Amino acid sequence: MRHRLPELPAEAMSSRTSGTRARSPAERLEPTRPPARPRRVRRSREPRKSRPFLRFINGMLTLALVLMLAVGGAAYVFDEQIDAPGPLQRTRIVVIPKGDGTQEIAARLEREGIVSDRRLFIAGYLWTKFAAWMGNDKPVQLKAGDYEIRENASIRQVVSLLSEGRTASYKVTIPEGLTSHQIVERLKADQNLSGDIEVVPPEGSLLPETFVVQRGAARQSIIDSMTTESRKLVEKAWAQRRKDLPLKSPAEVVILASIIEKETGRNDERERVSAVFHNRLRQNMRLQSDPTILYGIFGGKVAWGRSIMRNEIAQKTAHNTYQIDGLPPTPICNPGRAAIEAALNPAQTKDLYFVADGSGGHVFAETLKDHNANVAKWRVIEKDMRAKAPPPAAPAPSTDTQATGAPPIQGAMPKTRAVVRKAPPPADNAKDGAKAAPAPASTWAPTNTPATQPKQ
Q1: DSSP conformational letter for 305
Q2: Lowest mean pLDDT across 138-147, 390-399, 442-451
Q3: What is the pTM of this model?
Q4: How far apart are CA 354 and CA 371, in angstroms?
Q5: 74-164, superfamily in CATH?
Q6: Which end of the chain has less Cβ packing within 10 Å, N or C?
Q7: Alpha-carbon distance 418 to 442, whole Å?
């Protein structure tokens, strides 16, 4: 009885999952296991009723997705084509005339070798136009003009260039020393410009410069720009002038500057030439400038390179400074910036004369005696130049000689605008106490230097 184990309660025995008795005392001491989970009986689901509307929506969404993928792929491929380098091998200018439509422009670009296919260009243009409309950007429209197309330009670049109207720039250069008539004729002969100039501007009112304009720019707009720039320059220079100058108005500044412009083409001489004329004006001496003779006879149509006839010096005109006192009534050309500045900033000298030195410049003198000595030196140089120069071809008969019946001044050579003249004796040698005429301010010599050649 001592080793007898206690009996388990009946409920413990009945709680075993197996429903059998324990086979050993140790098994009786183990905790009872929970009963096995009952198997769930699956019930067959009833088939759902078909819904046509949902199937339609599902199909539409699928179709939309497919279309979006197709359009996206096509757009990617199309963008690659219009961004691809074009067939143009080197930069060139293409002219799009006014009135040409999209078809004509595309055909022209294909013909010029700028695009490979006109249809692709039209498609690229329409695509760019649609994209600008969708993005609420500036409308895209092809414009007429002259355009500089760079090598291998893509269709997109060409469309952008033509729609923005970025036409090719063009330089218009107007040299100093031309008359207003000559400037107008020069602009009319330029085929890169458009429009007409109805009225020739007043002499000296244009500022010669280089203007960067668009090809096809209006000629009148260039004239207007030259007039505006000239007025601004003269007004600014006049406000900064020296107060001791014998010039009374900005108009006289331009007149004197035009004479300086035709007297010398060297930058290092303009202020000294200006001083000669200022000194003569202060002493009431006639300027005696040869270019004023030619302008007085021929006006704006003057040929600056022609020789001066002997009888033309004595011909009385409103501009001939051998026959009038002081400045002529108008300029004789359109001076540049340097000449205008020199007219208001003469050198501090007492010079009254100058003569060519044979090297393209001039030698200056304060007295008539020194001036005559300089002329004699020039005669030697001139003689040596004539001896070394090859014999000139027989020139055609001069229309000036036929018109006047007078031979040219002795010593004159072809393609010059002035000649050497011997200066008259001083006033104290004049007979009967009469005052002798002053010597010319400039004794010009025929050379092939910029100082005496006409400015083209």
Answers
A1: T
A2: 442-451
A3: 0.64
A4: 7
A5: Endolytic murein transglycosylase (3.30.1490.480)
A6: N
A7: 10
Token output for 409: 């001044």
Cα 199 vs. chain centroid, distance in angstroms?
A: 25
Rounded to whole angstroms, what are the CA distances from 24 to 5, 20, 242, 312, 407? 11, 12, 138, 158, 162
User: Mean pLDDT of all residues in the chain?
Assistant: 78
**What are the angstrom distances between the C-alpha of 324 and each of 21, 284, 292, 318?**
157, 11, 10, 7
Q: What is the pLDDT of residues 338-388, one digit of tens each?
A: 999 999 999 999 999 998 888 888 999 999 999 999 999 988 888 888 888
Contact 257, 346 (CB under 8 A): no
Q: What is the pLDDT of residue 224?
A: 95
Bridge-based pairing state of the strands 442-443 and 353-356? parallel
Tokens representing 81 are 């084509």
The domain limits of the chain are 74-164, 228-390+399-443
Could you give the CA distance from residue 412 to residue 446 in angstroms, rounded to a whole number? 7
| Number of residues that make up the chain | 456
| DSSP single-letter state for residue 18 | T
User: What is the DSSP track for 282-294?
Assistant: HTT-----HHHHH
Take residue 4 and report the two structure tokens written for it.
């007898």
Give all strands (DSSP E) within 152-215, no chain letters.
Answer: 169-173, 210-214
Q: What share of the chain is helix, strand, coil (3-state, %, to 5)?
A: 40, 5, 50
Q: How far is Cα of residue 156 from the mean position of the Cα atoms in its chain?
A: 26
Residue written as token pair 């320059």: 233
- Predicted confidence at residue 36, as pLDDT, reads 73
Is the predicted pLDDT of residue 96 greater than 90, yes or no? Answer: no
Q: What is d(CA 174, CA 190) in angstroms, rounded to the nearest whole number?
A: 12
Q: Are 255 and 328 in contact (CB under 8 A)?
A: yes
Do 306 and 417 touch, CB atoms closer than 8 A?
Answer: yes
Angle between helix 250-263 and 337-344 (nearest 10): 120
Amino acid at 279: N
List, in sequence order, every residue forming a beta bridge with 443; answer none if it has no partner.
355
* Residue 244: CB atoms within 10 Å: 7
First-to-last CA distance in the chain? Answer: 150
Q: Is 353 in contact with 275 (CB distance < 8 Å)?
A: no
Tokens of 301: 């149509």
